[in-house]
Amino acid sequence: MYGLGRTGLSAALALKAGGARVHAWDDNEETRAKAEAAGIALSDINKRDWQTFAALVLSPGIPYKFPQPHRLVRMAEMTGVPVIGDMELFARAVQALPERGRPKVVGITGTNGKSTTTTLIGHILKEAGRDVRVGGNIGTGVLDLAALHSNAIYVLELSSYQLDLVKSLHCNVAVMLNLSPDHLDRHGGMDGYQAAKMRIFQNQTPQDLAVIGFDDIYTQSMAIGLSASGPQRVTQISSTYTLGKGVSAVEGRLYDNLNGKAEFIGKLEDCPALQGRHNFQNAAAAYATCRALGLDPATIMAGLKSFPGLAHRMENIGAIDGVRFVNDSKATNAQAAEQALRAFKNIYWIAGGVAKAEGIMPLAPLFSHVSKAYLFGQAEEAFTATLQGKVPVQACGTLDRAVDQAFRDAKAAGDTSPVVLLSPACASFDQFKDYEHRGDVFRSLVKAMMSAPLKESA
Fold this sequence. Notes:
alpha/beta, UDP-N-acetylmuramoyl-L-alanine:D-glutamate ligase
């Protein structure tokens, strides 16, 4: 076992609980100390006889093939020791059960939207009374989820790093949302990245379903290729195209066309946590998945409406005097902030922090959605220069000043449905520990403003 962060520690503890003899190591002294405190005996595998090892369980953050294999991966390859990850351990545990005793496994991957779609599917299934466990690359590690049994449904977010290390994972429903260049250094280029993502389909049978987005050229190619030659059934989903067969969510209107006859299911504008075209695709994927698992359209639509959303991802905090507050602190670059700017109008935009190389110039086509920008942090000066003459700007220095001024202006402007939006398009570490800390502070500031009138009237 190499790498004892969250995923690695979870795998080491699971292997130990299962009776395996675990040799666990991490080059980081602090991480080793945490693992030892959790009950894992340390063993420097750099100095062990590798001929005695059954497998090298690699944490997904450790380079496997690119930009170059980690030295311990090379050692494993030289001695014929298989290299696997926590998801492969889970897959083997499932396969070891009698066929009738296996749970259903839903895997979700793609470049964007994985966490929202995974959580959304889990929410809908739970609301429908199903025994569902949600984890993987989000929240709880797969080996920390409740024990396997035949009536359970495991809904798992799968990263390309995890998929690179699986061989026997079998997904009853495999969801591929979208694909765009990302993590290319870890996969040797776009071909390697796409190949890693495609592993989610590798063990599917004619009884299984592949749910594939049809909104980018990469996933279009996957959908067409698997439809023509794959053993599994394929359902296409789209937030851009009205599909002849599949599930469409164009302009927020959800249609079920799985049987070749379009049935209107509902308006996604009635789903507060699923605004914006990217979330329409997430909703279509969740709908197709839950239909495959036996839920009826009305039950799924009820789950879409009641979905609370994820913290820091276009999270609806609430409203004061008609002004809505949205926490999109997870938007740490322009590409991520684009989704929120596209989803709303009359935006009082709070942005800033440590800017990425592209800055916010790629967002220029959406500046018309912004009534005024409130800037803070290191990017304040650069963003002011970009926005000058295009959007009214106020330099605020800190997040608390930006929130206060944005609310005052939004309330006074008399706009229709104004939104105070924290979508920073920046990293957070100039003033905060991470994007979660930044979002938590924003939420606390808004909640304090919400309670202020009550205090004044007491």
